[in-house]
Each structure stands twice: as structure tokens, then as C-alpha cells.
From TrEMBL:
It is found in: Cytoplasm. One of its GO terms (biological process) is DNA strand elongation involved in DNA replication. Forms a ring-shaped head-to-tail homodimer around DNA. Pfam families: DNA_pol3_beta (PF00712), DNA_pol3_beta_2 (PF02767), DNA_pol3_beta_3 (PF02768). The keyword Cytoplasm applies. This is Beta sliding clamp. Residues 1-126 form the DNA polymerase III beta sliding clamp N-terminal domain. The keyword Nucleotidyltransferase applies. SUPFAM superfamilies: DNA clamp (SSF55979). Its main location: cytoplasm. GO terms for cellular component: cytoplasm; DNA polymerase III complex.
Length: 379
């Protein structure tokens, strides 16, 4: 196996595939990067058994400057190989596999020889032959991930909550995540009804890595399912992830249908205020920020307090405030995550009582996105 390739084009795809490679895997060969050269081009594969990423560098794309002198396959130690490639002196590199899986990498006057492994021992990627695919624009899918993955649990004691629950019925895709203290739910109406129904839980860590692979210029993202795997296709990149097994809790009943107090704020202005209040709340053990709402005077006040450092108080002017007077405390970090997910928009916050969860929705298109936060008892 021997090929020459443009180094920048190679590094771009190498960085994507490396997202799936972990040094902590229990299968030694998975610490390596698999390279396969054939007539179509060069295929790179990385995996940690939970996530697998495969990408094809086309031989017929002149930007890649890919010339395959002889076909073949090899597995190379990913970390060493990546460090070598990124420090080579010239714009192109040549990789040549000789007998005994010895691999020579040359670029200009630099030449490295590293030991490879037999690619036949590399685990096969899952075969997903499902024809039913859900297709979304890259930007929409990345937004959906970023808006929901913030609420997944980091506690392995309830593994089911470390994933995002995806359901697809007719033309509506619903994604929900909760760690039992907060919840994020996003609906997307597809242009046409899907022929299949989905009810799957995808690990939050997988989705976070996937969102980093979706660039601003990316084409549509296609999602296909098999029994215990999901495949996302982004152009010539394939992202496989295992699914979590089990039944996700029924979250629909957690979202209150009515409220006693509601307020509208600019999300960015409220976020800035919460960030200021949390400067002090982070110094105290309980990390709580308090919000008081008084519809009679049309005022909202935020308090942050640390017995060791001091306190902060800031008045806000909501664009709309209705209902009963209210005083409620919450974790500011949950609130900041929720507010960031709305971006530059106006939001409506609906409260039912000081100890009941409250919801945040955008003032426009409020049916399709909701964040829910459980308050903190301070008395």
C-alpha cells in the first residue's frame, strides 16, 4: 500500500476520525487509525466501540492531490501518527507500507518509520441496511443537538438519562433530555411523513461529538437505525453510535400546562444578569440565585449571595409580567445553559409555584421548544 496526499486535506479528515479514538479502550487495536486505499480513494476509520467514524477522501477530487500507487490497508497508532502528520514540513506526504506492516511516512526531507498492525484484525463496523432515513439540514440538526444535550445526566447511576430520547411519529421528530433536575424538549416538523417510527435513546456523548463534525457548510444529515445502532451520514462521513437500552421515562407529564405567573425577557439580557449574579453564588456552598417578580410594580429582581464574599442585587424590566407575585430560587448554571440555547430571542418564563418546575419557551414558535428547570428549596 502506497499513496501520496495533500497534507491539509488529510489532516482535516484525520481530525474528524480521531474524535472516535480513545486511548482508554479495552481493545488495543482500537487505539489505532485504520487506513484503506482502493480505487475510490482513501478511507479512514476510528472507533472506541461505542462511537465509530469513517470518512472517504476521494481520489478524483483534485484538491486532495491523492495519488494511490498501490492499494491495501493498515492500522497505525493514532496519536503518534497524527502528531507526525501535523508536524511534517511539506504540503504533501507519502505513506508507504512495506513488509511486516512497517510504514514509512515521508514529506520533503523528513522521514518517519512506524510499526503498524494488520487491518484484518480491526473490528468490522456495524452493518445498517435500513432504507428508512430521516434527513435534516446540518444546521437544524446541530441546533437540535445543542439545545437538548445540555440536559442529559452525567450520572452513570441512571444510564438511561445520559442519552437523548428521539421519537418519530408521522412527520414529527421529538428530542427530549432530562437529568431529573431540568429538561429540554425540541420538536421538528419534517417536510413529509416518515415511513418508519422511531423510539430510541442516543448517548449524549455521541451527539456532542457528532455536532462538532457538522460544519456551517455541511449538507443534510441523514439518520438511519438498526436494532442497537444509529448511523448518521454527513456527505462522505459516516458516524456510528450504539443506542442505550431501556425505557425512557414519560417526560410529557412533567411539563406544566398552566401557570400562575409569567414574564417575558430578552434572553441575552437575562443571561448577562444571571451570569453576574452567579459570580457570587458560585462562592457559596449551595450555588443558588433568587428571582422575585412583582406584577403590580412590573419589576423583576435578581439576588445572588455568598456569606463569605457578599451579595448582588439587580433590577430587571421584563417586557411583560402578569399573574401573582412570586419569589423563586434556582441553580444559575441550569438557567444559563437554558438561556444560551435560545440565542438572541425573546423568551417567556411561566411559573406555577415557588417549588414547582418552571418553563422557558421562545415567544415565537413556542410549541416546538421548551426548557424546564426545577427550583431549589431554600427554606
Amino acid at each position: 500500500m502506497k499513496f501520496t496526499i495533500n497534507r491539509a486535506a488529510f489532516i482535516k479528515e484525520l481530525n474528524n476520525v480521531q474524535r472516535a479514538i480513545s486511548s482508554k479502550t479495552t481493545i488495543p487495536i482500537l487505539t489505532g487509525l485504520k487506513l484503506v486505499a482502493d480505487d475510490a480513494g482513501l478511507t479512514l476509520t476510528g472507533s472506541d466501540a461505542d462511537i465509530s467514524i469513517e470518512t472517504l477522501i476521494h481520489a478524483d477530487n483534485p484538491d486532495n492531490q491523492l495519488a494511490i500507487a498501490s492499494t491495501g490497508a493498515i492500522v497505525l497508532p493514532a496519536r503518534f501518527f497524527s502528531d507526525i502528520v501535523k508536524r511534517l514540513p511539506e504540503d504533501t506526504l507519502t505513506l508507504d507500507v512495506t513488509e511486516g506492516f512497517q510504514t514509512e511516512i515521508t514529506s520533503g526531507s523528513a522521514s518517519f518509520t512506524i510499526n503498524g498492525l494488520d487491518a484484518n484484525n480491526y473490528p468490522h463496523l456495524p452493518e445498517i441496511d435500513a432504507t428508512d432515513a430521516v434527513s435534516l439540514s446540518g444546521n437544524v440538526f446541530r441546533e437540535l443537538i445543542n439545545q437538548t444535550v445540555i440536559a442529559v445526566s452525567n450520572q452513570e447511576s441512571r444510564p438511561i438519562l445520559t442519552g437523548v430520547h428521539f421519537t418519530l411519529v408521522d412527520d414529527q421528530l421529538l428530542a427530549v433530555a432530562t437529568d431529573s433536575h431540568r429538561l429540554s424538549q425540541r420538536k421538528i416538523n419534517l417536510p413529509q411523513a416518515a415511513s418508519a417510527m422511531y423510539d430510541v435513546i442516543i448517548p449524549g456523548k455521541s451527539l456532542t461529538e457528532l455536532s462538532r463534525m457538522i460544519g456551517d457548510d455541511n449538507p443534510d444529515v441523514e439518520m438511519r437505525l438498526s436494532e442497537n445502532q444509529v448511523l448518521f451520514t454527513i456527505g462522505d462521513r459516516y458516524f456510528y453510535s450504539r443506542l442505550l437500552e431501556g425505557n425512557y421515562p414519560d417526560t410529557s407529564r412533567l411539563i406544566p400546562k398552566e401557570s400562575t405567573t409569567s414574564a417575558e425577557f430578552d434572553a441575552k439580557a437575562l443571561l448577562a444578569s444571571i451570569e453576574r449574579a452567579s459570580l457570587l453564588s458560585h462562592e457559596s456552598r449551595n450555588n443558588v440565585v433568587k428571582l422575585t417578580l412583582d406584577p403590580e410594580t412590573d419589576t423583576a429582581t435578581i439576588f445572588g449571595n455568598s456569606p463569605d464574599v457578599g451579595n448582588v442585587e439587580e433590577s430587571l424590566t421584563p417586557s411583560e409580567l402578569t399573574g401573582e407575585a412570586l419569589e423563586i430560587s434556582f441553580n444559575p448554571d441550569y438557567m444559563k445553559d437554558a438561556l444560551r440555547s435560545f440565542g438572541q430571542t425573546a423568551i417567556k418564563i411561566a411559573f406555577t409555584s415557588p417549588l414547582r418546575p418552571f418553563t422557558l419557551v421562545p415567544t415565537e414558535d413556542s410549541d416546538n421548544f421548551v426548557q424546564l428547570i426545577t427550583p431549589v428549596r431554600t427554606f
